[in-house]
Amino acid sequence: MTSPASADLDLTQDVALLTAALIDAKSVSGEETALADAIERALRAQTSLSVVRDGDAIVARSGLGRSERVILAGHIDTVPLPTVDGARGTVPSSWDGEPGEGTLWGRGATDMKGGVAVQLALAARLFPAAGTHDAGASPAAPASPARDVTFVFYDHEEVEASKSGLGRLAANHPDLLAGDFAILLEPTNGTVEGGCNGTLRVEATTVGEAAHSARAWMGRNAIHAAAPILARLADYFPATVTVDGLDYRESLNAVGISGGTAGNVIPDRCTVTINYRFAPDKGIEEAEAAVRTLLEGFEVVRTDGAPGARPGLNHPAAAAFVAVVGRDPLPKYGWTDVARFSQLGVPAVNFGPGDALLAHKDDERVEAAAIRECLASLEAWLRA
Amino acid sequence: MTSPASADLDLTQDVALLTAALIDAKSVSGEETALADAIERALRAQTSLSVVRDGDAIVARSGLGRSERVILAGHIDTVPLPTVDGARGTVPSSWDGEPGEGTLWGRGATDMKGGVAVQLALAARLFPAAGTHDAGASPAAPASPARDVTFVFYDHEEVEASKSGLGRLAANHPDLLAGDFAILLEPTNGTVEGGCNGTLRVEATTVGEAAHSARAWMGRNAIHAAAPILARLADYFPATVTVDGLDYRESLNAVGISGGTAGNVIPDRCTVTINYRFAPDKGIEEAEAAVRTLLEGFEVVRTDGAPGARPGLNHPAAAAFVAVVGRDPLPKYGWTDVARFSQLGVPAVNFGPGDALLAHKDDERVEAAAIRECLASLEAWLRA
């Protein structure tokens, strides 16, 4: 084991303790530089990977010349710290009991410094720097990875999409993101969650004619005119679509409504904001067409949208990985960066330690055992 | 004719020219004092009425000892001046053509300095100060009024109800507002408009359960739940109710709707603001009960309301007045201060020169002939 003086992070320590060290290196979006520096130094010093830095993103690639290349990706930023006194999902981290055992609390514990710790530990275990392997502790040298691996660490995931470090990498260095299959180490409780639903936002607007409400018959009520929009949304039964063997449950919802100017004026305008989460069997144009069909007769304007991602589980590398994990894969409902890989032509799944429902919460935490289990599954797969 | 040095206003001049003088005495709500001073001085100097001042309201009463007393009331304030360059509904006033003929433009022309001018002219003609009557110009002295008259001039009508000068008078001096019948000289194009509809505002709220919109089935959508509220309002066919011979057209409308907290959150609350304009055959409690019945199953909270006023045309004084005007009376739809008289037990109608639809407009104006016609009708009735 080594503890290089040139790096703050010891990638060879227990992966749960490494997670705690990563939490302690506070890295709210926009303030990732110190952590990115530490990760870059550690990768250069403790692994044989070739490292490229772009802003606060780091790409570290192996060069074994294998026929397949897989990508392991994770963001290093977190949402802001809790503002509630006594919240444990903060910085520095804390343990229930002995360090390294049980539950680890802290900002980023589940989203997603546990996943980043697994990436870093894998990098050090699979691709140790020359002379750092302690042959004595492991008489039978472990198998060399069967696939080349690209590790991607990126900034600005928890903020507006335009700032995304992964988006910037895709624009500046698409070659560095080439691969046959990608795993995003977002929290999935150790289950493979394939692809993701797309998301589309539209505004449906009704237009009426203003009048004094004491003489309502002189106007036309735009809020009343919106009744069929709400009725159609309320009556709509969202589909569940099977894509590559996973069942994607869709949803179509009004997420906002506004209308009216004053308590004595017949409203001349009412706007319903609608969010359609659509299965990855369709593109964003198809999704928009479906909403337009449902709301036929109403003015519909797209305001926002991002395509989903197919799970890609039909790829051999993905199938092998699912077999190693040994659990039935699930569909991912929320939009994640797997969609960016999908757009680059790389099938991608989510797989990481921790519970996504604890993400961004004041009681954010992760189990040490879950982090180790995740590391073990990935290492077993990559060495197979 | 007299032109008292102690007063700025000559109440005996042509009533259209008097209207112009009143417009020129700018009196936006809250700035009525100078005009109230001038009116008080003129009434004291040029009439035999007994005058009481309360704030910027003035009550001037005759004491003929007649068996009936009628009230003529009007507010002396206006909405603010137009802010648009070149608008003619401003101060000072202006004429199309010769002063006193044709169209008079200015803030308050229709709402309601024309009506106030008619009140002041009537006061001077019916109840001239001792020694001011020019017998030479009118060899047959006009008949003395058959009814006692109370003239009410009040402030703060164009602002929130709590500031109303008429409301203050009703609280401080209910005795001064006693009478058998009241005419409010709001603009009605010279037609008697009887009573007024009441107004009720309620909020109907739906409550759901928030969830991420990517997992909509974890929540309940409060906006969708509001669909039946809008459908019932849209399908509702408002009644027309005949009260004392006038047809009151009701209306029931959503005047506002809001719901939703973010583009990716299932809304847990949606509030529809509803305004019911109800005929004066019912009180506010009955009106609220009707809305609750229509929206059965939904949470309904009353936020605001004011009862309407029956037209009171069955009163002999009212019937005589309608006969003198010689036009079919109409119902009043908007809420006006006749409702305050109604609450004091005094039947009241609206009758005044000018078009109510020009009130508050940048092109506010009134016809000189309409002002004179209004004065003639009232004088004929009061001398009958």
Descriptive notes:
The structure is a homodimer of 384-residue chains. In chain A, β1 (50-54) and β2 (57-61) form a beta hairpin. The radius of gyration of chain A is 24 Å and the shape is elongated. Helix content of chain A is 28%, strand content 24%. The first copy, chain A, has 384 residues and is an alpha+beta fold. In chain A, α1 (15-24) packs across α10 (368-383) and α8 (316-325) packs across α10. Chain A has 2 domains: 4-195 and 309-383, Aminopeptidase (3-Layer(aba) Sandwich); 198-304, Alpha-Beta Plaits, CATH 3.30.70. Chain A starts with 14 loop residues before the first helix and ends with a helix. In chain A, the strands form 5 sheets. Chain A has an 8-stranded mixed sheet, with helices on both faces. Chain A has a 4-stranded antiparallel sheet with strand order 13-15-9-16. The first copy, chain A, has 10 helices and 19 strands. Chain A has helices at residues 15-24, 33-46, 109-126, 165-172, 222-225, 227-235, 284-294, 316-325, 338-343, 368-383, and strands at residues 50-54, 57-61, 69-75, 94-95, 103-105, 148-154, 181-184, 193-194, 198-207, 211-212, 240-243, 246-249, 251-259, 265-266, 269-278, 299-306, 330-331, 348-350, 365-367. At the A-B interface, α5, α6, β13, β14 and β15 of A face α5, α6, β13, β14 and β15 of B. β13 of chain A pairs antiparallel with β13 of chain B. Chains A, B: Keywords: Hydrolase, Metal-binding. Chains A, B: It comes from Sinomonas atrocyanea. Chains A, B: This is Succinyl-diaminopimelate desuccinylase. Chains A, B: It is an enzyme of class 3 (hydrolase). Chains A, B: Residues 198-296 form the Peptidase M20 dimerisation domain.
